[in-house]
Amino acid sequence: xxxxxxxxxxxxxxxxxxxxxxxxxxxxxxxxxxxxxxxxxxxxxxxxxxxxxxxxxxxxxxxxxxxxxxxxxxxxxxxxxxxxxxxxxxxxxxxxxxxxxxxxxxxxxxxxxxxxxxxxxxxxxxxxxxxxxxxxxxxxxxxxxxxxxxxxxxxxxxxxxxxxxxxxxxxxxxxxxxxxxxxxxxxxxxxxxxxxxxxxxxxxxxxxxxxxxxxxxxxxxxxxxxxxxxxxxxxxxxxxxxxxxxxxxxxxxxxxxxxxxxxxxxxxxxxxxxxxxxxxxxxxxxxxxxxxxxxxxxxxxxxxxxxxxxxxxxxxxxxxxxxxxxxxxxxxxxxxxxxxxxxxxxxxxxxxxxxxxxxxxxxxxxxxxxxxxxxxxxxxxxxxxxxxxxxxxxxxxxxxxxxxxxxxxxxxxxxxxxxxxxxxxxxxxxxxxxxxxxxxxxxxxxxxxxxxxxxxxxxxxxxxxxxxxxxxxxxx
Amino acid sequence: xxxxxxxxxxxxxxxxxxxxxxxxxxxxxxxxxxxxxxxxxxxxxxxxxxxxxxxxxxxxxxxxxxxxxxxxxxxxxxxxxxxxxxxxxxxxxxxxxxxxxxxxxxxxxxxxxxxxxxxxxxxxxxxxx
Lengths: 476, 129
What we know:
The structure holds two protein chains of two kinds.
Chain A: H1 5-10, E1 18-22, E2 27-29, E3 37-43, E4 46-51, E5 57-63, E6 68-69, H2 71-76, E7 83-86, E8 90-96, H3 97-106, H4 108-140, H5 144-164, E9 182-184, H6 186-194, E10 199-202, H7 206-211, E11 212-214, E12 218-219, H8 225-238, E13 247-250, H9 257-269, E14 274-277, H10 285-288, E15 291-293, H11 306-310, H12 317-320, H13 324-327, H14 330-352, H15 355-364, H16 370-393, H17 397-421, H18 439-458, E16 474-475
Parallel strand pairs in A: 5-16, 9-14, 10-12, 10-13, 13-14
Antiparallel strand pairs in A: 1-8, 2-7, 3-6, 3-8, 4-5, 4-7, 11-15
Helix pairs in contact in A: 3-4, 5-16, 14-16, 14-18, 15-16, 16-17, 17-18
Chain B: H1 2-23, E1 33-39, E2 48-51, E3 56-61, E4 66-75, E5 78-82, E6 88-94, E7 99-103, E8 117-122
Antiparallel strand pairs in B: 1-2, 1-8, 2-3, 3-4, 4-5, 5-6, 6-7, 7-8
């Protein structure tokens, strides 16, 4: 496609064509147009590029004085294979197809040069294709190492941060037998209740207690034990509860964190005998005791500020994926990555500083055994942070998207369970007081899941690893 | 190699910056000081609340001589008290910061629920006016 000035002279092209002036920014040749002219650059600078249907532009080369273009389409008779645009005001020699054919017939040197140029062009094309194929294959690669990197980094950061955090928590919460606390069966507890021979203490948070509790039971949320225990003792004294009456602690869910912890704390502080329901049927108290119930009380929604608004953006994905070219667009992937990244970094930062608060939120979902609660509360926010940052920066994006997608599936299952069971809890997703669990929240998370899938399948732009950072207009 | 170092430096910088932002709240200074409960725990059985500027706080029960330590911060003109077990008490300042309405439900409410609210009043001369 290019020639030196002296060669151009030799080609005797000055005898044909007409000189045209092309202002800067004007497209001389458009990709896909039928071939009409062959051009030789007399002065100025032009850019040759290709563009796909979905707007991805690849710069091929730049042309200067002595270079020529348009020969491929004239020789093959097929539409233009690339577009050419003037980067500055340029003088061109415009030669018609007839003149071009005539010059070729009379000038074997030019014909050979054109053949050489086309051959070179094919070789260059093969090299470009190979380079691009290697790049795309690298981009699409996904390995266990990616997951190991994200998981390992999250665990290491979580453990190190917990070591130095003022609000650190034990890695594993043990809910084994509590020394000094007597374990009783549900039947024995019911018998004590009927004979009025025990005081029943609900260890759960006040919103659970208000929703349903054993009739006459007192509430001493374990999370406020230190603050509320003196008042609790004061109330027992006011009600003139005999010292010999035992306290039966209940309110454990699958994690048994609240009831066992409260029994342990009461055993340390109280002079009374402490009892707890045994492992066999500690969750069946709702069926065995008369209840005081106040269902249907709504959880207050805390204003979340910007975080609350950002969370709505993923809902828009449902409209975008209806448009096929947009659905597969790498630009949509880049936008999804940025939005998901910001949301998950925001989610993470609101939970990282105080893992004990998040651990209590995890217990509220009643899905996780005691030993796993603290580990989950420590590692999940760091997983969100690492995967979110990887998405924003374009590092291991497919693996990060699949990790975030998996998290969203877990969140959706948890949210649906909460709604179906009518648990009076906040989401605990963003902000320490969180937001109420509603079907809207499920929709937002489903939107995030769809975004993660879109990134997993179509992401290929603005990535920072696997072959360099790719901008929209990339040089090859 | 240099590019990898650049990427990881950028990544760790972002984590560090994020944590710095997450760790910082609004200034505690306007609310630091000593408060005393008026309702429902007044008189001898009152609760004394000492909020220190460094984020530490003491919940004192003078009658029994017990002191419970916790942490606090300020966000959106609300005080957040954190117990060591992960409980949160939201306190809403009123009367220009002279009173605190502490919500003992552990949940966020637009205003302090009457039956679960302890009202504290600032003790003059202890902390900023």
